[in-house]
Design a protein that fits this description.
The complex is a heterodimer of chains A (913) and B (157). In chain A, 28% of the residues lie in helices and 20% in strands. With 913 residues, chain A is α/β, with parallel strands linked by helices. A five-stranded parallel sheet of chain A has the order 3-2-1-7-21, with helices on one face. Chain A has a five-stranded parallel sheet with strand order 9-18-12-13-14. The chains are: A alpha/beta (913), B mainly beta (157). The complex binds flavin-adenine dinucleotide, iron/sulfur cluster and FE2/S2 (inorganic) cluster (FES). Chain B: Residues 1-22 are annotated as: Disordered.
Chain lengths: 913, 157
């Protein structure tokens, strides 16, 4: 895909040397030693495959990587701008590198191969012996011999360091372009150009736009993505790219890059046709050149356009030297895609273990990963097969172009191009070389218009080309390996874990197979409702029903033979309770609603293991006065409660009995506290650092913002608990990126991150928008939360929700920032209604004798404490006694004084120093 | 262990005696039901119970030991009583579970680990893969319960 014929090669290496543990044991007689040169994606696959298949440990593996890090997801390189964290591009299970049979030498380029002695020499001059040698040195970004290509500000786009530097450069240029004028600060836009209009160039142009720079794509050929697209597709693509605010200059050769007179940085591009373009940054994406220098100096045979020549077993002319990935010249060419590289890795692993595998031919299907621009192609996209026929659907106004290439009888699928709507791609690509059922044109019609026949893929069809996973393997994951969700199948088979293009198909096959295996893929909430939570939410909203009885009568499932849908259960009742609360239905304990509330909501407190409760007053933003602290301390003391500081910057008081709750609340409410909603699937806390008011580094008042957010969203019921965080500068002391909504101050405003969480599967929140002013920040969070509340599943936190939302975070961004669904006003109104209707749930109970009456311990003895409660003292406070301690009785450790009705003076604990 | 200096408690002070049903609290004092033979005790007025929610009641077993039951009122004003002790959590909380139905069977779910029990029989219909705490049975004990003249009665023997 990035093949390029011309040009010299500039090796851009900027790695800082680092000291590394180099201990590598000498090979023992039974284990053999394979040395891998190169620590890229294909090397990773090689190690993974060898370690999983070589169960007897016959091979010891040493990997030499020139880059200073573990192999990472180069295909996902552009994500770096979003996640800003090299760690997030990590591939596979990092435990692979802790395997005692695997040694990774980072920042340790191999300089020389001695085939005679069977050794390699690394950059530190150390010599390592090998039994077998695998070259996986990949490619370099090609740098065409344009004068000025070494000016500061000219970048290539290949490694994490490349993109990190590019980002730094654009940000520095943007800063330099800010000028104070009498009318205020004016920002000069950063002007970017990308040389090369292929897949990579378009991705780079998208990245420049995302960094806030302008982008012009300079393409030498007649149209964009010439390798994949024919002219018609290329033209449709140009329209789509222009719509993204990216200009395109086709049929343009760059003659020279000129320095800026003052800075000496790249400043202008001069073209052969006499045109010119002022620039602040240039990304060169004209293709890649195999890094075959080692192979060449070792005297191995080179391909016509470079690359180490290998046969179908991936072996070079030297029987102990193999080449895989982009550096291998197989079937006469080097392949610039990860899928064939991975296949080669598997072939060599098989051979090392005595197998007979051969390279089956390259799958060159590709999909552009530029958000909002759907482009994909596979097979013979240009229709070069003799006598082939093409079926084209084009809608120039919508920027849609779809083409299938078929055999002369119009039956066998030979290839295809999709621009603007690549939905058929996932289904059709695995059908390459097979006969299509029905009329091929049906596959090209817009979704819903034609009835594209359902394709039942043969088991051997390759569904995920990145990871070489067939339909049969996915089916097997369900039938033989007990996978019951797409997530399971992904981790079991690796399908869909690289570029993600195959995911819709993986999902479809998984679900079909599950149905077939009798595993229910029902979306039903429970036996009473056949809908998902999101569907029920909409149903309730549209029908304007306000009681569970009405809702279950209208939407509940009436089982065969029964006359009604029944009365719900512990699953659907809390869901309906949450839906009603999110839509503003008064106090959660009023009327019939009180019967729907889950354990904690029911008592407006959190039930603990012995049936008593913990009480958490709200401390907005974690900011509390000394007087407030004293009140909480006194309440805890007077009621004999165990106290603990929570992770959300407030104080939890444990061991309150049902009948004590109203008295505790009264004390707190009288002192100005309110419910902290620690019991609800609702906003919990907004954690903050101290921010600019005190901190030497702070650039915004993070506490002020946290207080504002907490007061705005307090009491907001949601599918799961919600946590927010605000940090006063990029040092991120509030750990906001571990939250559902994380806000981090910048000197221009606030960066907004969403969909992170701690817990069992921690996820960093992802950047949604940058440098927002406070008002826009609130509006954006309003909409994010409301969209989540409306569309998430029961107990689905924001991270999995965003992942499963159709189109992912980008689609969410479009809904809330660009109003792509036209519901923004609606979301805003819903949040305004919530903010307006807020009341303190504790206070409301205290004011209502009916509700208060439910907080007795026993209906026939409402003030008598549960006689079974028993406590022992530990570290100066009480805790529930264990069964053994209770059995030992009051003569044992159990202390009746701790459990009894608390005297206002309180039981005092003498704590030994 | 830390030495504790505190007033001893007088609990359990207010257990109503099923033999004479003279309850010591204001609410229950209104209950004018007579003690009936066979361990029947008046617990509260029906209108003190919220339909489809439970309430705990403190009774005595025949041997005089204090005993907690969970009393539930359904939409049709029928009442049901089961033990208050949740065998899977070893806590007295069953009255605070969610009431619902499984098929036609009225149920209550444990508020702690969500086991589902049949209200009429106490049978555990769904254990969620958990086992009861040591020494406790998998099912709840169910007690006869009925409303007489607007007063809920439960029989504990
Ligand atoms: C932005 C971007 C987007 C892409 N998108 C896609 C896509 O959507 N689909 C797709 O299929 N492909 C895509 N690719 C291409 C894909 O990343 C490559 O095909 C794949 O990474 C090749 O793997 P490799 O292991 O052969 O080479 P590499 O991943 O390049 O790894 C080679 C490694 O070897 C190291 N090395 C080289 N020489 C030495 C030496 N002498 N000693 C030690 N180490 C050495 C290099 O530093 C490098 O780290 C994309 C590439 C980029 C840059
Ligand atoms: S995040 Fe920044 S402002 Fe907040 S405490 Fe840390 S250094 Fe200070
Ligand atoms: S095709 Fe790329 S992840 Fe499956």
């Amino acid at each position: 895909m990035f093949a390029s014929g011309n040009s010299t090669l500039t090796v851009r290496s900027r790695w800082l040397p680092s000291v590394e543990d180099m201990s590598s044991e000498p090979p023992t007689s039974s284990t053999r030693h394979v040395v891998v040169v190169g620590g890229g994606m294909v090397a990773q696959r090689f190690v993974e495959a060898l370690r999983s298949r070589d169960t007897d440990g016959t091979w010891r593996i040493s990997v030499f990587a020139e880059e200073p890090r573990k192999p990472y997801d180069r295909v996902g390189l552009t994500r770096y701008f979003e996640v800003r964290d090299a760690e997030e591009l990590t591939l596979g299970d990092p435990a692979l590198w802790d395997d005692p049979l695997v040694t990774l030498h980072r920042d340790c380029k191999v300089e020389k191969i001695d085939r005679e002695q069977r050794t390699v020499t690394d950059r530190l001059g150390r010599v390592h012996a090998y039994d077998e040698l695998v070259l996986a040195t990949g490619s370099n970004a090609a740098m065409p011999p344009i004068p000025g290509n070494d000016l500061p500000g000219v970048f290539v786009y290949r490694t994490i360091d490349d993109v990190a530097e590019l980002r730094g450069w654009v940000e520095a240029k943007r800063e330099a372009g800010r000028v104070e004028t009498r009318g205020g600060v004016v920002e000069k836009p950063v002007r970017g150009a990308v040389i090369g209009g292929g897949l990579l160039g378009l991705e780079a142009a998208g990245a420049l736009k995302a960094l806030g720079a302008q982008a012009t794509v300079i393409e030498f050929g007649t149209h964009l993505m010439g390798v994949q697209c024919d002219l018609g597709g290329g033209q449709a693509l140009k329209r789509l790219i222009n719509d993204k605010g990216i200009s395109v200059r086709p049929e343009t050769a760059t003659k020279e890059m000129k320095p800026h007179r003052r800075t000496g940085h790249v400043g202008r591009l001069d073209f052969n046709d006499g045109g010119r373009l002022d620039v602040d940054v240039v990304v060169v994406a004209t293709g890649v050149r195999p890094r075959d220098e080692l192979a060449r100096s070792a005297g191995l045979e080179m391909g016509e356009r470079g690359g180490a020549v290998v046969d179908l077993t991936c072996r070079t002319e030297d029987p102990n030297v193999w080449a895989i990935g982009e550096v291998a010249c197989i079937e006469g060419r080097c392949l610039g895609l990860v899928a064939p590289g991975n296949t080669m890795a598997e072939v060599v692993v098989d051979r090392l273990l005595g197998g007979q595998a051969e390279f089956p031919g390259a799958d060159t299907a590709t999909k552009l990963k530029l958000s909002g621009v759907d482009v994909a192609s596979f097979g013979d996209a240009h229709g070069r097969t003799e006598d082939c026929v093409e079926v084209v659907w084009a809608d120039p106004t919508a920027g849609v172009y779809k083409k299938l290439v078929l055999s002369d009888d119009a039956k066998t699928l030979l290839g295809g191009v999709f621009v603007g709507d690549a939905t058929p791609y996932a289904t059709l690509r695995p059908m390459l070389g097979a006969e299509l059922p029905g009329d091929p044109a049906a596959f090209l019609l817009p979704e819903g218009a034609g009835n594209a026949p359902d394709i039942e893929l043969p088991d051997e069809a390759n569904v995920c080309s990145c990871n070489n996973v067939s339909a049969g393997t996915i089916r097997g994951a369900v039938t033989d390996h007990g996978c019951t969700s797409v997530g399971d199948v992904k981790s079991c088979t690796k399908a869909g874990t690289t570029c993600g293009a195959c995911l819709p198909l993986v999902k479809k096959i998984t679900e079909t197979e599950m149905t077939r295996a009798g595993i229910e893929v029902s979306n039903a909430l429970c036996e009473h409702f056949e809908m998902t939570r999101a569907q029920l939410f909409d149903a309730v909203r549209v029908s304007e029903l306000h009681s569970f009885s009405d809702i279950i009568e209208r939407f509940g499932v009436v089982p065969e033979g029964a006359t009604s849908a029944g009365r719900g259960c512990d699953i659907c009742k809390p869901v309906v309770a949450s839906i009603l609360a999110s839509q503003g239905n008064g106090h959660i304990l009023s009327g019939e609603q009180s019967t729907l509330q889950d354990t904690n909501d029911h008592m407006l407190a959190n039930m603990q293991k012995d049936g008593t409760y913990s009480v958490v007053p709200r401390v907005p933003g974690g900011e509390i006065t000394p007087e407030g602290l004293i009140v909480i301390g006194e309440v805890a003391k007077d009621f004999g409660l165990y106290t603990k500081i929570t992770g959300g910057q407030r104080i939890d008081m444990f061991g309150a009995r049902v009948e004590q709750l109203p008295d505790i609340w009264k004390r707190l409410v009288d002192a100005g506290f309110e419910s902290g909603h620690a019991y609800g699937k609702s906003l919990r806390t907004v954690k903050s650092c101290v921010g600019s008011t005190w901190c030497r580094y702070g650039v915004q008042d993070s506490v002020g913002m946290a207080v504002e957010l907490e007061l705005r969203y307090r009491g907001l019921r949601s599918p799961h608990k919600l946590k927010l965080g605000v940090s006063g500068c990029a040092r991120e002391c509030a750990e906001a990126r571990g939250k559902d909504v994380g806000v981090i101050a910048t000197d221009k405003g606030w960066n907004l991150y969403v969909a992170g969480n701690g817990g069992q599967t921690p996820k960093h929140a992802q950047l949604l928008a940058e440098d927002l002013d406070s008002e826009t920040l609130l509006r954006t969070i309003d909409r994010f939360l409301m969209l989540y509340i409306r569309t998430a599943d029961r107990l689905q936190r924001t991270a999995p929700w965003a992942e499963e939302y159709e189109g992912g975070l980008e689609a969410i961004r479009q809904v809330i920032m660009e109003d792509s669904l036209g519901i923004a006003d609606d979301l805003d109104a819903a949040m305004a209604a919530h903010v307006g209707a807020y009341e303190d749930e504790w206070k409301a109970v205290l004011e209502d004798p009916d509700k208060l009456a439910r907080f007795g311990s026993f209906v026939n003895a409402p003030t008598t404490p549960d006689p079974s409660l028993a406590y022992v003292a530990e570290r100066g406070q009480k805790r529930p006694a264990t069964a053994e301690e209770i059995a030992a009785g009051p003569d044992g450790p159990v202390d009746p004084a701790l459990a009894g009705p608390v005297l206002v003076t309180g039981p005092t604990l003498e704590v030994r120093a | 262990m830390i030495p504790l200096a505190a007033a001893p408690t007088d609990r359990p002070a207010e257990i109503p005696d099923p033999e004479d049903t003279v309850t010591t609290t204001q609410d229950a004092a209104d209950v004018a039901a007579d003690a009936t033979a066979g361990g029947w005790a008046a617990v509260c007025r029906l209108d003190q119970l919220v339909p489809e929610r439970g309430a705990a009641a403190l009774l005595r077993r025949a041997d005089g030991a204090p005993f907690q039951v969970a009393v539930f009122r359904l939409l049709d004003d029928s009442v049901h009583a089961v033990q208050q002790l949740d065998p899977y959590a070893a806590a007295n909380v069953m009255s605070r579970g969610i009431v619902g139905t499984r098929g036609e069977e009225p149920t209550v779910a444990s508020p702690v680990y969500k086991q589902v029990f049949a209200l009429r029989t106490g049978e555990c219909l769904e254990s969620g893969g958990k086992t009861p705490k040591a020494g406790l049975g998998a099912h709840l004990e169910a007690f006869p319960a009925e409303v007489r003249d607007g007063v809920v009665h439960v029989q504990v023997t």
